[in-house]
Write a structure and sequence with these properties.
- With 264 residues, this protein is of the alpha/beta class.
- The chain folds into two domains: 1-29; 31-258, TIM Barrel.
- It is built from eight helices and ten strands.
- The strands form two sheets. Strands 1, 4, 5, 6, 7, 8, 9 and 10 form an eight-stranded parallel β-sheet that branches. A two-stranded parallel sheet has the order 2-3.
- It is globular, with a radius of gyration of 20 Å.
- The two termini are 36 Å apart.
Length: 264
């Protein structure tokens, strides 16, 4: 009897560890997963960079397993009419490698992705984190066909909205919109918050959402690493799933189905 009790205790704690570390027993969540990528490289992999081989494997998995990448445009037009297994693919910052490597892959798979642009850095480099990676210029952005790529806002100055005053946030958003319109680059009323940050204190949060509405922003994207339940209850706190080059293929599949690998 004692052996059975000890065996039960061991299995119980093993189950806790497996759930804590690997989210093993959480069922697949229904809803809308939004995948967040940044850079693509022919071979390099790091926190923000997936290799072309990895991305190809991800897209292949989506296709084989019946996921249907949708656009934010189609979601906004008819959020009640989605395919059985929808997914949205997003890339932040508009790196040149998105044009060189991502864009041909989207055409190959006939997938659509949304690229979120930090507007003041278009045609420059990722200086907000002291990087030297080239970002697409307007000429390159215009080359991408809307059948496979749509653009969203990723702020003007790529600063964390969480630590900014609301009037500065409003100016940042307005400058983003004005400059994209001046360059006649079509974009969606969807804003991906830099670093996933946004005001969380109640009064500031209310002012922040009012600013978004006044500037016709329909969706605001944080990180959160969860699958969005539908219909969306908080359109300005839509969650994305952080896909990293350091993820294993098993971790990618787990994130796609459950939002995260670890419980917390």
């Amino acid at each position: 009897m004692a052996i059975i009790l000890w065996l039960f205790i061991i299995l119980f704690f093993l189950a806790i560890i497996l759930q804590w570390q690997y989210n093993l027993f959480t069922p697949t969540r229904r809803g809308l997963p939004i995948l967040m990528y940044h850079k693509v490289d022919t071979s390099k992999k790091d926190f923000l960079t997936v290799s072309l081989t990895q991305l190809t494997a991800h897209f292949n998995y989506l296709k084989i397993n019946g996921y249907q990448p949708i656009s934010f445009q189609s979601f906004l037009q008819n959020p009640a009419s989605l395919p059985p297994k929808p997914v949205i693919i997003t890339f932040d910052d508009g790196f040149v490698n998105n044009f060189e490597l991502l864009y041909p892959l989207l055409q190959q798979f006939d997938f659509k992705a949304t690229i979120f642009l930090p507007v003041s850095f278009i045609g420059k480099t990722n200086a907000w984190d002291a990087g030297t990676d080239a970002l697409m210029d307007y000429e390159t952005l215009q080359k991408m066909d809307s059948r496979w790529v749509e653009f969203g806002l990723h702020s003007f100055a790529h600063q964390n909205y969480k630590s900014m005053k609301t009037n500065d946030i409003e100016e940042d958003i307005k400058k983003s919109i004005d400059l994209l319109q001046a360059h006649h680059l079509p974009f969606l009323p969807v804003l991906a918050y830099p670093f996933g940050g946004f005001p969380k204190e109640k009064i500031m949060s209310q002012v922040f959402e009012k600013i978004l509405k006044q500037n016709n922003i329909q969706l605001g994207l944080r990180i959160g690493n969860k699958i969005n339940a539908l219909p969306l209850q908080k359109p300005y706190q839509v969650k994305r799933i952080d896909i990293r080059g350091t993820d294993s293929f098993w971790e990618f599949k787990t994130k796609l189905r459950k939002g995260r690998v670890k419980m917390f």
